[in-house]
Design a protein that fits this description.
- By secondary structure, the chain is mainly alpha-helical.
- It has a single domain, classed as Arc Repressor Mutant, subunit A (Orthogonal Bundle), CATH 1.10.10.10.
- Helices cover 50% and strands 8% of the residues.
- It contains five helices and four strands; from the N terminus they run H-E-H-H-E-H-E-E-H.
- The chain has helices spanning 3-16, 25-36, 41-51, 72-82, 93-96, and strands at 23-24, 60-61, 86-87, 90-91.
- It has a two-stranded parallel sheet with strand order 1-2.
- A hairpin with a 2-residue loop joins strand 3 (86-87) and strand 4.
- Helix 1 packs across helix 2 and helix 2 crosses helix 3.
- The protein is globular.
- 26% of the residues are buried.
Length: 104
């Protein structure tokens, strides 16, 4: 998989995350690792920062359910609008985590 194909694969997977659910950067990387040969949460984060404007970026969070501080207010508003389970200013990862292949 070329770097451009990997960007497309990340964005396609993020587009499939249902409203009210999330994946961590690492989970996105893990879900694509076998196909792509890559397994870097940091790379997924870079892709989302550079190319994620048109994607539901708020559905990809860090492993503890958070966002960078500058994005938290907007992400929180989007999470609330979608009914994403929260604990303070973080996503409740136990309740909200989604994995490809789960029902929508």
């Amino acid at each position: 998989m070329t770097p451009d194909e990997y960007v497309e694969a990340v964005l396609e997977l993020v587009d499939r995350i249902p409203p009210g659910r999330v994946m961590s950067y690492g989970a996105v990387a893990d879900a694509l690792a076998e196909r792509s040969g890559r397994a870097s949460a940091r790379l997924v984060g870079s892709i989302m920062a550079r190319h994620g404007d048109g994607a539901p970026w708020h559905r990809v969070v860090n492993a503890s359910g958070g966002m960078p501080p500058r994005l938290t207010p907007e992400a929180r508003a989007r999470w609330l609008a979608e009914g994403t389970p929260l604990r303070q200013d973080r996503v409740d990862m136990r309740a909200a985590t989604w994995w490809p292949g789960e029902g929508m």
